[in-house]
Design goal:
about 450 residues; alpha/beta; about 25% helix; elongated
Length: about 450
């Protein structure tokens, strides 16, 4: 009986199956399987005279200090963990048009200025198109090698000849290997191409950045299949209607996955946002009911955001609830806490909660600010514009401690805030001069502060 020449792959996670199934056993996605040819593996001579690795005790292993290359873009270096590690394989994912290629081209400009040898391989644009885009970003003082090619075998030959220090692949969906009969962008081609690039990076010590596109439906085989193969996974997030972009690390073998980089999209490319809190709070109304400033943490960085709430009498049989920038179910939970613990009847009111600036924050430390904003809007009582709030709220109305409270207070003080409402548990351990600290144990104490 002839051996089956095709198998089925999940486009979401790369799970392999001998037959088509409706739901992927790996990632539970529906209708994500596609039929593709089997990749023929070349035989390996295991008796070849190669050096055999022997296991070592942990105490015998010698570590060397990581030699990182600074990209010249502070927000990118922060997310990478301090710079580019030699021989690393980095995946940069995101929706089409979000700014992935722009960011990497700006990185190339900084690296070539520092006399680094960089090769930019594009399978989507010609060299003339890349040149036109580079001219919009500014003057390139160094020399950047450009290559428009999709055949990975030819790219490997060029890399072996020119030996660049850093290489950009834009994008992985356009690359293909000749021995694989599947079309470019398929699971087989993407997986095998990334495997070849991984061997190239580790074998020659070249730092490689791979661009991976994700459609709005999330069905393209790319970043989700490759996450387990690369060293670092960076995702570019942002709304096309907003000017800011967030670069987030979801996997990093050489640094923290809690860091984010904030950029602003301009005509000349992406500009770093050194103080995201100031940027997010632009245009904030003064002394308006329902407007509260909250201190949230993104990695090691404090983000001050404005939480807005609008509570009004409803003319509908079922009042409307809307949450933008935070979890909808969490808002409903906090409204139930307000009704039960404070006796405020919100069941007959429409309620709208918004995190201004387009930020999406699900941190529990935002709870206290949401509660304060809802009560402020309902009572039509404004809080001082120099007040900042943070803390987690439980179902019994208690205010629980949050992490990195001292840093939140310090950063709020630097931004000019004079009053900080925080959990009493955190208040006992913070001694900072120049800002008034008010500790609360439950939402009833919070309600009293608004009535004063």
């Amino acid at each position: 009986m002839a051996k089956k020449s095709t198998v089925f792959f999940c486009k979401e996670c790369g799970f392999e199956s001998a037959k088509w199934v409706g739901q992927c056993p790996g990632c539970k996605s529906w209708n994500s399987f596609t039929e593709e040819p089997v990749v023929k593996k070349t035989s390996v001579n295991r008796t070849s005279n190669r050096k055999m690795e022997t296991p070592k005790y942990l105490s015998e292993v010698r570590t060397e200090e990581e030699n990182r290359t600074i990209t010249g873009i502070g927000e990118l270096d922060r997310v990478l963990g301090g710079g580019i590690v030699k021989g690393s394989l980095v995946l940069v994912g995101g929706d089409p048009g979000i700014g992935k290629s722009t960011l990497l081209l700006q990185m190339c400009r900084q690296l070539t200025t520092a006399k680094k040898k960089v090769l930019y391989v594009s399978g989507e644009e010609s060299q003339q198109q890349i040149k036109m885009r580079a001219e919009r970003l500014g003057t390139f003082q160094g020399e950047l090698l450009l290559l428009s090619e999709t055949n990975l075998d030819q790219i490997e030959d060029i890399v072996s000849r020119d030996t660049p220090e850093i290489m950009i692949i834009d994008s992985i969906q356009t690359m293909f290997k000749e021995e694989i009969s599947a079309s470019p962008g398929s699971v087989s081609q993407v997986r095998e191409s990334t495997g070849a690039l991984m061997h190239l990076a580790k074998g020659m010590g070249i730092s490689i950045f791979i661009v991976g596109h994700v459609t709005k439906e999330g069905v393209v085989a790319g970043p989700r299949v490759l996450e387990h193969m690369v060293d670092t996974v960076l995702y570019f997030e942002g709304d096309n209607t907003a000017a800011y972009r967030i670069l987030r690390a979801v996997k990093n073998r050489f640094g923290s996955t809690n860091e984010i980089g904030v950029f602003e999209m301009k005509n000349t490319g992406l500009a770093e946002v050194m103080n995201p809190s100031e940027y997010m709070l632009q245009g904030k109304p003064e002394d308006e009911p329902g407007s509260i400033i909250a201190a949230s943490m993104e990695g090691t960085r404090t983000m001050l955001v404005e939480v807005q709430a609008l509570v009004c009498q409803s003319n509908l049989n079922m009042p409307r609830r809307t949450a933008a920038g935070t979890d909808y179910n969490r808002v409903n939970l906090l409204m139930a806490v307000i009704e039960k613990r404070l006796g405020i009847q919100l069941s007959f009111c429409d309620a709208y909660v918004n995190v201004a600036g387009g930020m999406k924050i699900n941190e529990p430390a935002l709870d206290l600010a949401i509660v304060m904003a809802l009560i402020s809007s309902y009572k039509n009582r404004a809080l001082s514009s120099k007040t900042i709030v943070f803390g987690e709220v439980g179902l019994t109305g208690e205010v629980r401690a949050v992490n990195m409270a001292e840093q939140r207070v310090n950063d709020a003080k630097k931004m000019g805030y004079e009053i900080c409402i925080l959990p009493q548990v955190n208040r006992q351990h913070i001694k900072i001069q120049g800002i008034r600290l008010i500790g609360v144990n439950n939402v009833r104490e919070l309600f009293k502060l608004l009535q004063e």
